[in-house]
Amino acid sequence: MRFLDDDEELNPIVSAVNLVDVFLVIIAALLIALAQNPLNVFSSDDVTVVKNAGKPNMEVIIKKGKEIKQYKSTGDIGSGEGMRAGVAYKMADGSFVYVPEDDKEGSSATTSNK
C-alpha cells in the first residue's frame, strides 16, 4: 500500500490525466467548428461560397444537398466560346436598347426596362 501513501504532487499520472482533459476540450471545440462549417457534408443545405471574389484566382463552390461542385476562374475576362450577337445601349430613362449586328430581316431594336 505504499502507492496510496505517495504525495499527489509527485505522481506523474495526475499530470497525464490533466493533459487528457485538455485534449478532450480541444477535440470538442474542433468538432463544434466542423459542424458549423457551411460546406459540412452532413447537412443538406444549399450553399454557394465565393473565394477571392473579383480576383483572377476566384473560385465558386456550390453545394446542393450532398453534391459539391467547384468552379475555378481562368483569369481571362470576357473570354469563352461564342460570337458577338449585337450591342446593348442604356438609355437616359434606364431602359435598354438591343441592336443586333447581323440583322438580315430588317432593322428592328428590342427594348427592355430595368
Largest β sheet strand count, sense and barrel closure: 3 strands, antiparallel
Overall number of domains: 3
Portion in beta strands: 25-35%
Output mean pLDDT.
78
Helical content class:
10-25%
Q: Largest beta sheet: what is the strand line-up? A: 1-2-3
- The radius of gyration over CA amounts to 31 Å
- Summed up, the helix count is 2
Number of DSSP strand runs: 6
Q: What overall geometry do the principal axes of the alpha carbons give?
A: rod-shaped
Which segments are poorly predicted (pLDDT under 50) over 5 or more consecutive residues? Answer: 105-109
Structural category? alpha+beta
Through-space gap between termini: 88 Å
SSE ordering: HHEEEEEE
Explain this structure to me?
The structure is a single chain. This protein is an alpha+beta fold. The protein has 3 domains: 1-36; 41-80, no CATH class; 83-114, no CATH class. 25% of the residues lie in helices and 26% in strands. It is built from 2 helices and 6 strands, in the order ααββββββ. The protein has helices at residues 2-5, 12-35; strands spanning 47-51, 59-64, 67-72, 86-90, 96-100, 110-112. A hairpin with a 2-residue loop joins strand 2 (59-64) and strand 3 (67-72). The relative contact order is 0.08. This is DUF2149 domain-containing protein. Keywords: Membrane, Transmembrane, Transmembrane helix. The chain crosses the membrane at residues 12-34. It holds the Pfam family DUF2149.
